[in-house]
Design a protein that fits this description.
The structure holds 2 protein chains of 2 kinds. Chain A is mainly α. Chain A contains 1 helix and no strands. Chain B is mostly helical. Helix content of chain B is 72%, strand content 0%. The chains are: A mainly alpha, B mainly alpha.
């Protein structure tokens, strides 16, 4: 899993690339989890 | 203009995307995710169904409260049944385009393939958005189903062989990461579409057309980052410290089979059946998840939507989990678990209703969905083990026709059996038992098919010199 080169610009590039895909994915997971919690909530009276 | 075209063509060419010194292979999975997170939106297409079925009534402020049978009572509004063909067409064209263009994807390289995928998928969204704006269903079929479906197929296979070449030490993890993105695409696509439709809705429109067009533009920009990032390894490159095996292990070859030759082997068709049966059984749950949990446990529609979302999460998580695990356990053993454990779990689903355990029902369905996703994500590495790396993308493309067939067979199986049972007086809450038992039976057949997979016969391999020339 180690990065093969320790060039700082490469590290920044890697970080940005993973954030580019990670942020929307994390948002999607968060929204989905919030909706999924409704499954275990008692129905409103 | 001519010079610009040449520059773009050169940029997309495989020879111009060879990684230079200092490039990190860990930039390739996010490049692949840029594509798969977008095309995975297809799994969330159902979020458009109700608004698409209410286009005319929303213009007249006359939409009734939606029910399963009457989404709109306005003459001319599209029915849910006809809208269902949009997704089905997209999946059919996904498989067909992956099969037809697989060899082109291998020869043109990932950058050109990703660019083609972005142009087709996002162009398809624009055409579909136009079709919606003039209320013309054939144009929506053409846009999302045919053009977009071709973008799905080319995009789905575009990073696979590149990832396998960058990660010879962990092919399951690498391809699992990309294909996880396809599962994750639904988690992004659904709330994004809902938010955009809310933004664009007006007293005379529910905003579907503008939403599709906006998503086409956003996704194109997102996918272009993948096009810019992706690189192929230089010939002879290997990870630091990695020693390539010189002799084939029992179920992992070091040699190569071409796509043309692969389809002549029983191994290809056994793996085709493995994918087809795993996907068909998975659709048995996915295709009726919302109705099933409402009928079996009397939960609300909102809670049922939450359940479907939970299944999507496990579908996504299973892709990276099982594909990574297969690097350690072996592909054949991984599929043995999918089919063996899966068959038992499907048999248990009717029992959870009998004991009234919603928690157990949810747990079982979530485990099944991890194996559904895992089946998709592990198959490229399985193909690489059986047929080598030279044309694994093209072989994967041809195998995806199994998905197209399952995409048609699965819903038919689920819907017709349920309708048949209801028509014969079976209670709604009991109408799923037969489907679950049939799904378990399908998995038993899948178990046998996977058990029969053996190494490819000597005569199918490419001569060593030819394989080196191809790489």
């Amino acid at each position: 899993m180690a990065i093969e080169k320790t060039d700082p610009s490469l590290t920044v590039k890697l970080l940005l690339a993973w954030l580019w895909v990670g942020i929307p994915l994390a948002w999607g997971v968060w929204v989905t989890l919030n909706n999924a919690l409704k499954l275990f909530q008692p129905p409103a009276a | 203009m001519g010079a610009e075209e040449i520059t773009l063509a050169a940029f997309l060419d495989r020879s111009h995307s060879i990684a230079g010194p200092g490039f990190s292979r860990w930039l390739v999975p996010p490049a692949a995710l840029c594509i798969h997170l977008c095309i995975g939106q297809a799994y969330a297409f159902s979020v458009f169904n109700k608004p698409l079925a209410q286009l005319l009534c929303s213009m007249q402020h006359a939409c009734p409260p939606a029910t399963e049978k009457a989404i709109s009572t306005t003459p001319g509004d599209w029915t849910i049944a006809s809208l269902g063909w949009i997704f089905s067409l997209a999946i059919v064209f996904l498989g067909l385009s992956a099969a037809v263009f697989g060899r082109w994807v291998e020869s043109a390289g990932p950058r050109a393939a990703m660019f083609a995928s972005a142009s087709l998928f996002c162009g398809g969204l624009l055409v579909a958005g136009f079709g919606v704006s003039i209320h013309n269903l054939p144009i929506v079929f053409l846009g999302y189903g045919v053009i977009g479906g071709c973008g799905l197929g080319i995009g789905y296979i575009s990073p696979v062989s590149t990832l396998i070449k960058w990660f010879p030490d962990r092919p399951g993890l690498a391809t699992g990461t990309a294909i996880m993105g396809f599962g994750g695409g639904a988690l992004i696509g659904a709330p994004l579409a809902v938010a955009l439709m809310k933004q664009y809705s007006s007293p005379t429109s529910n905003g579907v057309s503008a939403t599709m067009i906006t998503m086409g533009v956003i996704y194109f920009i997102f996918m272009m980052v993948g096009v810019l990032l992706v690189r192929v390894p230089a010939p002879g490159w290997k990870p630091a410290g990695y020693v390539a095996p010189t002799t084939s292990a029992h179920m992992i070859t070091t040699r190569n089979v071409t796509a043309t030759e692969a389809v002549k082997t029983p191994q290809f068709w056994l793996l085709w059946a493995v994918l087809f049966l795993n996907v068909t059984a998975g659709i048995g749950i996915l295709g009726q998840a919302s109705l099933m949990v409402q009928d079996m446990f009397a939960v609300t529609a909102v809670a049922a939507a939450g359940f479907v979302g939970l299944l999507s999460l496990f579908n996504m998580g299973g892709r990276i989990f099982w594909a990574s695990m297969s690097d350690f356990m072996g592909r054949k053993r991984t599929y043995m678990i999918f089919f063996g454990l899966g068959a038992v779990l499907y048999f248990l689903i009717p029992w959870t209703k009998n004991i009234g355990s919603l928690g157990l029902f949810v747990l079982i369905c979530c485990i099944i969905l991890t194996m559904y996703g895992g089946g998709f994500a592990t198959i490229p590495a399985y193909l690489r083990d059986m047929f080598g790396t030279v044309e694994v993308g093209a072989i994967h493309g041809r195998l995806l026709t199994a998905w197209s067939c399952a995409g048609v067979a699965g819903p038919v199986l689920v819907n017709y059996i349920r309708q048949y049972q209801l028509a014969h007086g079976v209670a709604k809450s009991d109408a799923y038992s037969v489907t679950m038992i049939i799904c378990a039976g399908l998995l038993v057949v899948g178990f046998i098919c996977n058990y029969l997979v053996k190494p490819v016969d000597e005569g199918h391999y490419v001569a060593v010199g030819a394989a080196e020339a191809a790489t």
